[in-house]
Amino acid sequence: MASLTFSLHRQQWRAMWQLTKPRVVLLIVFCAVIGMLLAVPGRPDLPRMLAATVGIALVAGAAAMINCLVERTIDARMRRTAWRATARGDVSPAATLLVALTALGLGMALLIGLVNALTAWLTLATFAGYAIVYTLLLKPNTPQNIVIGGASGAMPPLLGWVAMTGEVSAMAMLLFLIIYTWTPPHFWALALYRRDDYQRAGLPMLPVTHGARFTTLSIVLYTVLLLAVTLLPVALRASGAVYLLAAVLLGGRFLWLAACLHRNYADELARRCFRWSIHYLSWLFAALLLDHYLFIALRF
Ligand code: HEM
Ligand SMILES: CC(C)=CCC/C(C)=C/CC/C(C)=C/COP(=O)(O)OP(=O)(O)O
């Protein structure tokens, strides 16, 4: 097995890297790091933070690789994913499994050895939630797949928080709740303009099972819920005016796009909505952090 890994060509390593879904993992890690920084009032413990960041990134990348491995036949049937090395057969399942398990092992070792046990076990549960529960059980069987499975995608800021404090707090759960309610509009916007892919692959995504009209309405409702949830940190006095302004402006644009999509569906608009979901989450978390540091600076 070991010689298998080392005999991979440079091109195959590049393909393996793509299987980790690097851009998704980047945003996951960004949210985890913000969870870490929000958890501590002053200067964070940098070595612990670095170990937690690399550990979470390795486990998240491993989860994405297992997802690509399990879904290689389905991926081959979809235009969006047919290029993946697992779907094309450019890397063998055994090599993919070995690299993923190595990343998982390294990530867990870092979390257990240099962070804390609670973070390590919660990260492992998140791995299992995505790579096994979502990928194997939920995704092929129910249109609520991402509503339930979204729980694993929502874990990163909570993991970051626990990495720095060793415990789960109300604010950590609130950060989880923000990503949890963000996930359905994020994914359904993409599933709408990719519905032919999902139909061909035989996956019961909401636009395939319930049609575009029901899906756009669901996006609007979840976006309203998201806007409400993002106001909770202010209601609980954990965040201030800068964050409030960002949450209202960013959420307002998300809701406006969702409403336009529901009123007048077009694939291009769904694509814009999906792209905005990513910018939205990035800016919202950046605003949480800015607000946190402004609060500290003004207090002293
Ligand atoms: C179960 C929950 C989720 C589902 C089902 C989902 C689904 C998807 C899908 C299908 C794509 C397209 C990927 C591609 O074309 O390669 C995507 C892209 C993306 N997702 Fe998600 N996602 C989820 C959670 C998350 C989370 C938690 C984050 C980050 C915090 C995230 C960030 C992104 C980013 C940044 C992209 C763009 C990737 C690129 O441009 O290559 N997603 N998502
Ligand atoms: C911290 C940690 C261990 C996190 C693991 C959780 C994780 C990687 C969540 C990402 C969610 C994601 C990439 C969904 C893609 O949906 P999909 O798999 O349906 O998309 P696809 O059709 O592109 O494969």
TrEMBL record:
Keyword hit for Membrane: yes
Transmembrane segments: 49-70, 91-112, 118-138, 145-164, 170-193, 214-235, 241-259, 280-298
Domain of life, per lineage: Bacteria
First-tier enzyme category under EC: transferase
PROSITE patterns noted in UniProt: UBIA
Reactions catalysed: heme b + (2E,6E)-farnesyl diphosphate + H2O = Fe(II)-heme o + diphosphate
Keywords from the UniProt entry: Cell membrane, Heme biosynthesis, Membrane, Transferase, Transmembrane, Transmembrane helix
UniProt topology in membrane: Multi-pass membrane protein
Compartments, as annotated in UniProt: Cell membrane
Keyword Ribosomal protein listed: no
Pathway the protein contributes to: Porphyrin-containing compound metabolism; heme O biosynthesis; heme O from protoheme: step 1/1
Record InterPro entries: Protohaem_IX_farnesylTrfase, UbiA_prenyltransferase, UbiA_prenylTrfase_CS, UbiA_sf
UniProt EC number: 2.5.1.141
Annotated coiled-coil segments of the chain: none
One Gene Ontology molecular-function label: protoheme IX farnesyltransferase activity
Family as reported in the entry's similarity comment: Belongs to the UbiA prenyltransferase family. Protoheme IX farnesyltransferase subfamily.
Functional summary from the UniProt entry: Converts heme B (protoheme IX) to heme O by substitution of the vinyl group on carbon 2 of heme B porphyrin ring with a hydroxyethyl farnesyl side group.
NCBIfam families referenced in this protein's UniProt entry, alphabetically: cyoE_ctaB (TIGR01473), PRK04375.1-2 (NF003349)
Miscellaneous comment text of the record: Carbon 2 of the heme B porphyrin ring is defined according to the Fischer nomenclature.
Name of this chain's protein: Protoheme IX farnesyltransferase
Gene that this polypeptide is encoded by: ctaB
